[in-house]
Amino acid sequence: MADATIKAKILRFDPDKDEKPYYQSYEVPVDRQVTVHELLNIIHRDFDGTLAFRDFKCFKGMCTTCILKLNGKSVKSCSTPVEPSTEIQIDPVTSGEVIRDLVVDFNNM
Question: By the 8 A CB rule, do 100 and 13 touch?
Answer without folding.
Answer: yes
